[in-house]
Structure formats: structure tokens, C-alpha cells
Q: What sequence folds into this?
């Protein structure tokens, strides 16, 4: 159960306080680190570029951790939401748009013009050879930057939510799985001349892991280990996922294991309040995410039918659909839009509107799981803190006011609504299936008094 802690009230002034000099100093380190990385990417002198690159990473890391400790470690514990909608960086202002453009631009270059990242890739050559016994490429650069972002912003989350054991353990979990299972272990497999494999990702999120071509490659090149990889992926996708979701809801994966969720919960945390809570956004979510799940199921089935030799005419169509999915969903949606639009649309755009794994888990959670967020409407003061922190666009306050349990396919069980509630109204539970949809008895009693 996520612990509740008082949330600070918003100031009535519309002018955020001036940043004091210690915070400016730490932010200066961050800015200098980013400038150094940009300079390293543009330099034509390799040796100088190496030095500037590593100095930039050091400054960025030092500045981020130092700023996090000063910003959140020195203030009282609790969820502070002051000035989020009045700062340009967190209210779709100029800073947010600039950040979004830079993130989007980086993803576009990474996917389609990696040659422009050569001077950022070269400094990682030694690290790549040590870890993977392979030359560095754009994907090693991306994985390193991604993991570093989760680690550094995970430290920020640790300072910010230090009052909540639930969030401390959850943050440690996503950092562990990203660094260990999504960065270190795949590299070690390559060093051992085994297929690169991400044990924390599986179908349908890692959509090609159950494609016939990938299965054949893993079994052929990985031999016994490859057979285990195929077995692992199939069992996690088709057996473990339903079982774990039945007991714990989709949070066991989306908020504790998944790398996409890990980045959203750490680097994307400053933007969680930007998620659209409107009914129109919910309708768009339903119209996008379930057809995407249906598409990848269709592609997988068609590929296996074609590979079986029974319907060979399906091969071109199936491969064409697979390439379209990889481009439109695997690259544009999950990367360019899913991360690049954090500062504008919130930190769970991909998870909410596009991720087939989230759709799969959501269907299980809504219809078959024991997980729910129970509410005590008699204690709700309608402050709206819970809705403001919901990254999945759920208007939690409406449920809390009515004392209704929250059972939504989109809920990732992050627990932030419970943590932000000043009255302890919301509780994350893995209770029995019986009575799962019933509202609080206190609400029923109040209703009877009013009607009587």
C-alpha cells in the first residue's frame, strides 16, 4: 500500500519565487554538461572530443544529483506541487517546447541519421569493447544515455519521495532492471558471442521476440541458451503475465520492471501532471491502444502462418505489415513521440496511447485482476492533488468523491495518487475479487440518510 503524506498547497501568487544561488549553481553544472556534450558531438578533433564528452557527462551527473539533493533533500517530506502550472519548464512554456524539440530531434537523428552522432559514439568505444567486445554504435550510445537518465533521475525521485517506502523500492526496482537487465546483461551476452537479448522486455512490447525469424535466429545462434530465451519470452508473455497481473495488476510490470515505465517514472516525473484528463483524451486512448495491440497480434499470426508453408502467399503482406509496425509504432510512436513529447503531453504518452503491452495488461487488470485502488469518499476534501499527479489521465478525484474503487485498464498502479492525498483516502490493494466494484460503505450510508 502506498503511504499517504501531506501535500503542500499551491501559493496564490502567480509569480514563482526566484531561484536562489545554490540551486542556480547546480543548474549551471547541468547546463555546462549539456553544452559540453553538444560541443563533443560537433567537434572534429577526436581526442579533444573524448575529453569534452566525459567532462560533459561528469558535469551533468554532478549537477543533477547535487540539484536533486538541494531541491528536495532540504525541504520537508511530502509531494510538493507548487508552481507546476506557472513555470515555463513544466507548463508547456518556452523551456518545455525547446526541451521537446531537442528530445524529438535527438530521436529522429538516432533512428534515421546516426552518422551525425559519430562524435558522440566514438568516446564510448572503450566502454563498448570492455562490456560487449563490439564496436560502439548508435544503440549503445542510446542505451547508455537512457540508463544514465534513469539512474540520475532515479536519484532525484529518491530525494523527492524519500518519505514513501513504496516509491523508494519501486524506483530502486526500475533502476535495477534498466541497468542490469536492459543495459549490462545484453552487453555481456554479446561479449560471450550469444544473441543480444533483453530479459525485461517481451512480446507484445518487444514485438519481434515471437516472430518466426527471431525465434529461428535465437535457437540457431544461441543454441541451448537461445532455446531458453525463446522459452522465457513465451512463458513471460503468455503465462506469467496473466498470473502476475491477476494478483498484482499491471503495476508489477509497468511501474516496477519496464524500461519505458522506468524512464517515465524518473526522467518524466516533472511532467506527470500534463496528462490530459478529458473524456476526449480517454476516447482517443481506447481508439488507439487496442487497435495497435490487435495489429501486432495479427502480424505475429500472419508471419507464423506464412512460415508454416501452408499459406506462402501471406509472406509479403505479413513482412510489409511488420515493417510498417516497426516504423510507425516501434520507432515513431514509442521513441520520437513517446519520449520527445514528455514536456508537452506528459510522461506516459506511449504507455497510455500506444503500448501493446499496456493494452494487454490493461485488459487483464480490468476484467480478471484482484488489484484496485480503494477510496474512502467520506474523508475526501476534493483538493484535486490525486488527479493532478495521475500520469495516465485518470480523474481520480471523481472516484474519490463518490467513494468508488478505481478499476481502470490504464492505471499503472504507480501509487502517486495515494501518496499525494493529504487525508489517506486512496489505498492500493490486491484484495479478493468479491466486492471489487463496490463503493465505500460510508458513501452508501450517507446516501441513505440523504434519501431518507
A:
Amino acid at each position: 500500500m502506498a503511504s499517504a503524506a501531506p501535500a503542500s498547497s499551491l501559493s496564490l501568487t502567480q509569480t514563482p519565487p526566484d531561484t536562489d544561488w545554490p540551486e542556480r549553481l547546480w543548474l549551471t553544472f547541468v547546463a555546462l554538461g549539456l553544452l559540453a556534450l553538444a560541443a563533443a558531438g560537433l567537434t572534429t578533433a577526436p581526442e579533444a572530443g573524448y575529453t569534452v564528452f566525459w567532462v560533459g557527462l561528469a558535469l551533468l551527473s554532478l549537477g543533477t544529483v547535487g540539484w536533486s539533493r538541494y531541491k528536495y533533500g532540504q525541504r520537508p517530506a511530502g509531494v510538493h506541487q507548487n508552481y507546476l502550472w506557472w513555470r515555463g519548464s513544466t507548463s508547456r512554456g518556452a523551456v518545455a517546447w525547446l526541451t521537446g524539440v531537442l528530445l524529438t530531434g535527438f530521436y529522429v537523428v538516432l533512428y534515421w541519421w546516426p552518422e551525425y552522432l559519430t562524435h558522440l559514439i566514438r568516446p564510448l568505444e572503450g566502454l563498448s569493447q570492455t562490456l560487449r567486445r563490439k564496436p560502439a554504435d548508435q544503440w549503445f550510445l542510446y542505451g547508455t544515455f537512457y540508463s544514465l537518465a534513469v539512474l540520475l533521475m532515479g536519484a532525484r525521485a529518491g530525494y523527492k519521495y524519500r518519505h514513501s517506502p513504496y516509491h523508494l523500492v519501486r524506483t530502486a526496482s526500475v533502476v535495477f532492471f534498466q541497468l542490469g537487465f536492459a543495459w549490462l546483461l545484453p552487453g555481456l551476452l554479446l561479449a560471450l558471442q550469444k544473441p543480444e537479448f533483453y530479459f525485461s522486455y517481451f512480446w507484445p512490447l518487444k514485438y519481434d521476440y515471437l516472430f518466426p525469424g527471431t525465434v529461428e535466429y535465437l535457437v540457431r545462434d544461441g543454441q541451448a541458451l537461445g532455446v531458453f530465451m525463446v522459452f522465457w519470452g513465451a512463458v513471460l508473455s503468455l503465462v506469467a503475465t496473466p498470473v502476475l497481473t491477476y494478483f498484482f495488476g499491471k503495476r508489477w510490470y509497468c511501474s516496477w520492471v519496464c524500461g519505458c515505465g522506468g524512464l517515465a517514472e524518473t526522467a518524466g516525473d516533472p511532467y506527470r501532471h500534463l496528462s490530459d484528463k478529458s473524456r476526449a483524451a480517454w476516447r482517443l486512448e481506447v481508439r488507439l491502444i487496442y487497435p495497435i495491440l490487435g495489429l501486432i497480434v495479427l502480424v505475429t499470426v500472419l508471419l507464423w502462418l506464412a512460415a508454416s508453408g501452408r499459406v506462402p502467399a501471406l509472406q509479403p503482406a505479413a513482412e510489409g505489415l511488420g515493417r510498417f509496425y516497426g516504423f510507425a509504432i516501434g520507432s515513431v510512436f514509442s521513441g520520437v513521440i513517446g519520449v520527445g513529447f514528455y514536456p508537452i503531453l506528459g510522461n506516459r504518452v506511449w504507455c497510455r496511447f500506444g503500448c501493446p503491452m499496456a493494452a494487454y495488461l490493461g485488459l487483464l487488470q480490468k476484467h480478471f485482476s484482484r488489484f484496485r485502488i480503494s477510496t474512502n469518499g467520506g474523508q475526501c476534501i476534493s483538493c484535486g492533488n490525486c488527479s493532478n499527479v495521475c500520469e495516465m489521465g485518470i480523474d481520480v478525484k471523481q472516484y474519490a468523491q463518490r467513494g468508488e474503487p478505481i478499476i481502470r485498464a490504464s492505471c499503472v498502479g504507480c501509487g502517486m495518487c495515494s501518496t499525494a492525498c493529504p487525508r489517506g483516502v486512496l489505498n492500493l490493494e490486491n484484495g479478493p475479487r468479491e466486492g471489487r466494484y463496490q463503493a465505500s460503505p460510508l458513501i452508501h450510508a450517507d446516501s441513505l440518510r440523504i434519501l431518507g
